[in-house]
TrEMBL record:
<comment type="subunit">
    <text>In the presence of PdxS, forms a dodecamer of heterodimers. Only shows activity in the heterodimer.</text>
</comment>
<dbReference type="GO" id="GO:0016740">
    <property type="term" value="F:transferase activity"/>
</dbReference>
<comment type="pathway">
    <text>Cofactor biosynthesis; pyridoxal 5'-phosphate biosynthesis.</text>
</comment>
<feature type="binding site">
    <location>
        <position position="112"/>
    </location>
    <ligand>
        <name>L-glutamine</name>
    </ligand>
</feature>
<feature type="active site" description="Charge relay system">
    <location>
        <position position="175"/>
    </location>
</feature>
<protein>
    <recommendedName>
        <fullName>Pyridoxal 5'-phosphate synthase subunit PdxT</fullName>
        <ecNumber>4.3.3.6</ecNumber>
        <ecNumber>3.5.1.2</ecNumber>
    </recommendedName>
</protein>
<dbReference type="GO" id="GO:0006543">
    <property type="term" value="P:L-glutamine catabolic process"/>
</dbReference>
<dbReference type="GO" id="GO:0042823">
    <property type="term" value="P:pyridoxal phosphate biosynthetic process"/>
</dbReference>
<keyword id="KW-0808">Transferase</keyword>
<feature type="binding site">
    <location>
        <begin position="140"/>
        <end position="141"/>
    </location>
    <ligand>
        <name>L-glutamine</name>
    </ligand>
</feature>
<dbReference type="GO" id="GO:1903600">
    <property type="term" value="C:glutaminase complex"/>
</dbReference>
<feature type="binding site">
    <location>
        <begin position="53"/>
        <end position="55"/>
    </location>
    <ligand>
        <name>L-glutamine</name>
    </ligand>
</feature>
<feature type="active site" description="Charge relay system">
    <location>
        <position position="177"/>
    </location>
</feature>
<keyword id="KW-0315">Glutamine amidotransferase</keyword>
<keyword id="KW-0663">Pyridoxal phosphate</keyword>
<dbReference type="GO" id="GO:0036381">
    <property type="term" value="F:pyridoxal 5'-phosphate synthase (glutamine hydrolysing) activity"/>
</dbReference>
<feature type="active site" description="Nucleophile">
    <location>
        <position position="85"/>
    </location>
</feature>
Amino acid sequence: TSTAGVIAVQGDVSEHASALKAAANAHDETVEVVEIRESGIVPECDVLLLPGGESTTISRLLREEAIAPEIRDHVAAGKPVLATCAGLIVAARDAGDDRVETLDLLDVTVERNAFGRQKDSFEASLDVVGLDEPFPAVFIRAPAIGEVGDAEVLSSIDGRPVAVRDGPVVGTAFHPELTGDHRIHDLAFFDARNNR
Ligand code: GLN
């Protein structure tokens, strides 16, 4: 049994827990999901999930609760992280917004709310590197990825990257937990490819 920590200072958690369990199950593994709201728990986790929400609030709480350095240590030790939507913003190198103190886990810049007002939320069927069939992706006030440094683009929409991998860290601009399809969690955490 591995331990998956879901950062739960703000934002959605339960759908990610379901997707994590389904992905583990598909590999005949079990996973214990713990919610993280304070420091001291991240060091016990094998994998971490940084969910959506409001990136300004999440980054502030991660700093106030002294969780931010623990997440950086987790990645420095080569352990997997999946960062989605606001989580991607917080994990980026630069979010182009002074109110977001990024963790710099992914060598990318992001633009918050990049898909505009008319398209506040939408669904798209995405080709993703490593997946055989398109992934049903839900975008909610989603960021787009701008500059990509030393990271691999896994998926793009209208020429803009929306999923990337940088070593043990996978980031998605969309919400992979909302469609009952656990393949992104699988790709980030349980797939043999993440042991490259
Ligand atoms: N728009 C939010 C932000 O910039 C992210 C939205 C989300 O996580 N669904 O923080």
